[in-house]
UniProtKB/TrEMBL annotation:
EC number: 1.5.1.2
Gene3D superfamilies noted in UniProt: NAD(P)-binding Rossmann-like Domain, ProC C-terminal domain-like
SUPFAM superfamilies in the cross-refs: 6-phosphogluconate dehydrogenase C-terminal domain-like, NAD(P)-binding Rossmann-fold domains
Classification of source organism: Bacteria, Bacillati, Bacillota, Bacilli, Bacillales
GO molecular function: pyrroline-5-carboxylate reductase activity
Transmembrane segments: none
Protein family: Belongs to the pyrroline-5-carboxylate reductase family.
EC category: oxidoreductase
Biochemical pathway: Amino-acid biosynthesis; L-proline biosynthesis; L-proline from L-glutamate 5-semialdehyde: step 1/1
The name this protein goes by in its record: Pyrroline-5-carboxylate reductase
Cellular localisation: Cytoplasm
Sequence ranges assigned to domain Pyrroline-5-carboxylate reductase dimerisation in this UniProt record: 163-267
Function recorded in the entry: Catalyzes the reduction of 1-pyrroline-5-carboxylate (PCA) to L-proline.
């Protein structure tokens, strides 16, 4: 790729994506630029860590880029776009990773027929294992989708979805890593409470998550079938799963994903 990419926002999501792109070496690191609102120290650190260009003047960065990645919090999108809209050019591609915010809203804030793509990566981008969903806005065509896929495929597999599905996607794969980490935290706590060394617990649980993930990816079998293979009748797994069932695990997880989806919809409602 021979484009200049500018990140508007230098938070954890921007950093995860930048780390992935830098590691993939698909373009010179000097083609990657980053700006934020006011935290100069953060910009300096990112420049130092990734050898990218930190630019404190957001408008100047917008002028210098082909692709803009909008990575501010949803409630900052309006102010951010207002401050740069005069500098956005029709040939640029704007990619937003902001949860809940629609491409129509972004287009209306920009006030021109600029191509807008919405993407939902997750923080596993930092190790190039993000699950990223991509949806096209009304001014984006197949070329823009391909461009976004090329960019985000450097941080893990991409999936093109309909924009209306983005709220659900956010509830499963955008927020999903946090659910897994929460599960791991609880398993570590249980292991340590039973006397296992923290380091040992962490090593075993981490590999268990990686192994289960690889099984899900590589096996023909469904999650349910894989689970049943581990559950010997009246064995240890059965005892554990029965406890989860008694405490309505499935219902809780469904509620969890629904709440995240609902929150994504609410974030979009400020439009
Ligand atoms: N964290 C995650 O796992 C995921 C997050 N997302 C989405 O990514 C977006 C960013 O999230 P996250 O990285 O966690 O947020 P952070 O709060 O960590 O970062 C937000 C960044 O936006 C900058 N910013 C705010 N206003 C402006 C402005 N007017 N001009 C330029 N920069 C501005 C902030 O600058 P300063 O620090 O100077 O104020 C900061 O660098 C969110 O919309 C979120 O929905 C999507 C997928 C996953
Ligand atoms: O919690 C959030 O709002 C963001 C969006 C997806 C993951 N984190």
């Amino acid at each position: 790729m021979n484009k200049k990419i500018g990140f508007i926002g230098a938070g954890s999501m921007a950093e995860s994506v930048i780390a992935g792109i830098v590691n993939a070496e698909i373009l010179p690191t000097t083609n990657i630029m980053v700006t934020n609102k006011s935290n100069k120290k953060r910009l300096e650190k990112m420049e130092e860590d990734y050898n990218i260009r930190a630019i404190s003047d957001t408008k100047r960065m917008v002028d210098a880029c082909d692709i803009l990645i909008l990575a501010t919090k949803p409630h900052d999108v309006q102010a951010t776009i207002s401050s740069i809209k005069e500098h956005i050019r029709s040939e640029q591609l704007v990619i937003s990773v902001s949860a809940g915010i629609s491409t129509d809203y972004i287009s209306s804030l920009i006030g021109q027929d600029v191509s807008v793509i919405r993407a939902m990566p997750n923080t596993s981008a930092a190790v190039r294992q993000s699950a990223t969903a991509i949806a096209a806005g009304k001014y984006a065509d197949e070329t823009h989708i391909k461009e976004a896929e090329e960019l985000f495929s450097t941080i893990g597999p991409t999936t093109v979805v309909k924009e209306e599905d983005m709220h659900t996607v956010t509830g499963i794969s955008g927020s999903g890593p946090a659910y897994i980490y929460y599960l791991v935290e609880a398993m570590e706590k249980a292991a340590v409470e039973s006397g296992l060394a923290e380091e040992t617990a962490r090593k075993l649980i981490t590999q268990t998550v990686i192994g289960a993930g690889n099984m899900l990816k590589n096996s023909e079998e469904s999650a349910g079938e894989l689970r049943k293979k581990i559950m010997s009748p009246n064995g240890t797994t059965q005892a554990g799963i029965d406890t989860l069932k008694r405490h309505d695990f499935e219902k809780i997880i469904i509620e969890c994903v629904r709440s995240a989806r609902q929150r994504s919809m609410e974030l979009g409602e400020r439009e």
